[in-house]
Protein 1
Amino acid sequence: MTPLEYVRLAAHCTMGVGGPARFFVEARDEAAVLAARDWARSRQLPLHVLGGGSNLVVADDGVAGLVVKIALRGVDAREASGVVELTAAAGEPWDALVAQSVERSWAGLECLSGIPGLVGATPMQNVGAYGQEVSETVIAVRVLDTTNGRTVAFGNRECRFAYRDSLFRSGEPGRYVVLSVTYRLQPKGAPSVRYADVEKELVRRGVASPSLADVRASVVAIRRSKSMVLDPSDENRRSCGSFFMNPIIPGADLAAVEQRAVDPAMPRWPLPDGRVKLSAAWLIERAGFTPGATDGPVGLSTRHALAVVAHDGARAADIIAFARRLQARVEERFGVRLSPEPVFWGTVVP
Ligand SMILES: Cc1cc2nc3c(=O)[nH]c(=O)nc-3n(C[C@H](O)[C@H](O)[C@H](O)COP(=O)(O)OP(=O)(O)OC[C@H]3O[C@@H](n4cnc5c(N)ncnc54)[C@H](O)[C@@H]3O)c2cc1C
């Protein structure tokens, strides 16, 4: 294996910032992933796994070690006992897989339409949108365990999925390279309509009993209106989507936040375990940052207060400084700490 050297990572990330990878290789098959792991290990270098770069902020100095870009392809579907088991290699583009499942009338992924990135990253943060999460359909994740070079498969429970989290993300970060993911889908299943926004969009389209394709089209339209699909002509295109997770607070803390909010309309979603999820976008706006607010070459998306956007000349350091300002103001105003959603390479997590 002969990796490339000093490859600019900004070109591989939707945020478009960040310095070079000291070493860089593209893996088109599983043997190449293993070879990359062995190469890095024999030189005692860290291994970084790159998918579509849509949830990543790379430091301006770049990253030491080897970056392996996942380019494994292949999709296989098996229908048995009234379900479909759809297995996709980690390098398959996610939205194309969703489109394919919707076209074939397989329910389970339709609300996750329009999300950038590759299949292999979907279990990492339990990708979710509009009331659906991949944890509802993932039945197996095949991985390379970088500690011993062996391939293993995890079942759904072993993945320890939670809100924007999993074993792979916070449990044992960096240990596993996802090679393929299997989703269990429902042939001719009814679409999920769990969000008021989706319902409204369906009504606007005059759809009374929606198909999977109607829900996909509605979700993509809503996402587009919020600059939440990748569109090269969109002024908000350089982002990681939502920059912060919706904060989850203990139920006992809600009264104090409500008191500070002084607005009965503050969005809140009680969770089955007694905790309460709040809207990060609402908190950011009420802390004084309106969509489109800028701070030098970075700012908030003009269409969504939760997306931090990079403009010409932006560096990773600018993004981090801005994220810290948002966090500080929200904490000062509401006593709630916002946690960032993207992964940070070579830099301190804000
Ligand atoms: C406009 C926009 C909208 C978005 N909307 C949503 C949304 O609605 N919901 C949502 O959940 N996310 C959303 N995201 C975030 C992002 O698209 C997802 O998290 C996506 O799954 C990241 O995929 P990726 O291939 O680009 O991962 P990358 O950004 O390349 O990597 C992200 C992390 O996963 C790791 N990783 C990637 N592939 C592998 C692999 N094969 N094995 C091991 N580790 C791996 C990387 O090391 C890194 O830590 C959005 C992003 C953008 C830009």
Protein 2
Amino acid sequence: MATEVDPTAAEASTAARRPLPDDELLDMLHMLKLCRYFDERMEALYRQGRLPGAIYSGRGQEGTHVGVAWALADDDSLFPTHRDLSAQLTKGLDLKRVMAQFWARIDGYTRGRDGNSHIGDWSGNKTFTVMSHLPIAYPVAAGAALAYKLKREPRVALAICGDGATSNGRWHESLNTSSIFRLPVVWVVNNNGFAYSAPNALEFPTATIAERAVAYRMPGVRVDGGNVLEVFEAARAAVERARAGEGPTLIESVSLRWRGHAGHDPAKYMPNEMLEEFMGNSDPVRNFEELLLTDGVITTEGVDELMKRVESEFEEGYEFALASPFPEPGDATKGLWVEDGYWSSEPGRGGGTEAG
Ligand SMILES: Cc1ncc(C[n+]2csc(CCOP(=O)(O)OP(=O)(O)O)c2C)c(N)n1
């Protein structure tokens, strides 16, 4: 006997896989594709000797970056690490200024002081500048969260680091302090399997990073970085919990980086089978595109249009970067204090008084 099928039930079940309205899902796909394309093109320019700075590819990890940053409100703050440019773009960094940064031009976020990923825009998009010492963003995020709590501001800080950084004392101090004071903070660990070349088994004795949350009496969640919606939903729950005054959450997102630690690292330590498995089954960009195609949120023509838009955004950014002037020698001694306006979120030379 044929079973009666209720078409609205099928519709409801696929819609249940989509926790955001369709227009936001399309924006999310755009961001995922932009980040992937940016990463691929920047690597190509680097290999051609046309990109002077260093690159830290986050290819394969866009699901984590876009998913966690999507859960933040404008006034919430992001504390990223060297591999998290995709999270910063999602939080609102301007692609043109990011590219000017990589070519060390005056319109870059550090106004020509740095040629790679030490980017941030605290006065604009509340992305704290990336610092090298791992995981230095964690204690700073704890401090920001403490300030929000003391000032009774309904804001949340979210910090990201890699698995390797969890072996550093600052990581434990940050989790400990945040739990004692129930700070409005979300701790994200992007577990890409390797701390540079050291595999997880040589980094920590537990099977997962999420289970270490027990020691700090906070929830620990492990998500699949290949599934941007799973990441987003975990981050959204953690952000809501933090905003409601219930304290921190630890999120471990498992997502291999497909490239080496930096542009100069061929990553020979990464087993081929592992890489193939992640690239085959855990590609967050392809997985999400397939979901939206299957659910009829986008068509193949729509995907082609999106790619054209992404390509022209990149070209515009590239032209902007190369047209932006280098800093003048005098700029080096300007803007050493926050008050003088040099660090305003406007591009260009900025205000700023001479030091000394
Ligand atoms: C305190 C500190 N020690 C060492 C380094 C050098 N270093 C830079 S990246 C890196 C690997 C970090 O691994 P992980 O945290 O897993 O992040 P990944 O780069 O793999 O994304 C190391 C050791 C550093 N920046 N800071």
